[in-house]
Amino acid sequence: MDGLVFQDADSKKYSLGTVFIDYANKIITDVPFVSIIDPQLIKLRDETQETVGFYMLTNMVRMCVIEHVSNQEISRRAGVGNRIPLQLGSSGRVILAFLSEGLQAQVLNLLPEEERKVLQQQLEVIVNTHYSINEEEITKNVAALSAPVFGAKGKVIGAISISGPVFRWHEESMEQHISLLLKTAESISNSLY
To answer: CB under 8 Å, gap of 24 or more: what pairs does 181-184 form?
Structure first.
């Protein structure tokens, strides 16, 4: 089991080993369009000064497949390979909003009635605006702004997310970057058609 875990000799604490780093790198290099979209994601990170991630729909969850962490001292990191249910967070909601009715129903029908009603209202707004914002919904002190990315035949394949600490990345600062995010998402979608 070499490479699975690493133990620091001094602190005796364990961390993930190099096998997982290799796996994360394989995920990134196996996504066929990384070379097409990566420069745009890096540009978005540099212009917003916050972490930019690309999440893909996989088995009715969203998985972080690309992440460019903010160069600022305090930043947010989701982690490549991280899987999150679609009903949680702005990235999940923008994917969910553009899924077919049948796939959307699969997710919604698993939720309690009150939560389902609130989420359906949020999804209707997202369909009209093409973006979603959340503040501290999944992680304390973290906020995110996300937009959907479409692939062949106009089907949603994922989402771009810009995330950061709420003291700096909050609703007011996010609103200043909505048009930039939407333009980037549209440009990436057009390159994948």
So the answer is: 181/44, 181/131, 181/145, 181/146, 181/147, 182/130, 182/131, 182/147, 184/40, 184/41, 184/43, 184/44, 184/147, 184/160
| DSSP code for 71 | S
Q: Which pTM was predicted?
A: 0.79
The residue type found at 115 is E
* Ramachandran quadrant class, 141 (left: phi over 0; alpha: psi -120 to 50; beta: rest): left
Per the structure block, which two tokens stand in for 156?
């949603």
- The amino acid sitting at 189 is S
Q: What are the pLDDT tens digits along the chain (193 aa)?
A: 455 555 666 666 665 555 554 455 444 445 556 677 889 999 999 999 999 999 988 888 888 888 888 888 877 777 787 888 888 889 999 999 999 888 898 889 988 999 999 999 999 999 999 999 998 777 788 889 999 999 888 899 999 999 999 889 888 989 999 999 999 999 989 887 7
Answer yes or no: are the C-beta atoms of 34 and 60 closer than 8 Å.
no
Helices (H), 1-112: 18-30, 34-48, 89-97, 101-108
Q: Which of 68, 56, 8, 7 is nearest to 32 (CA)?
A: 56
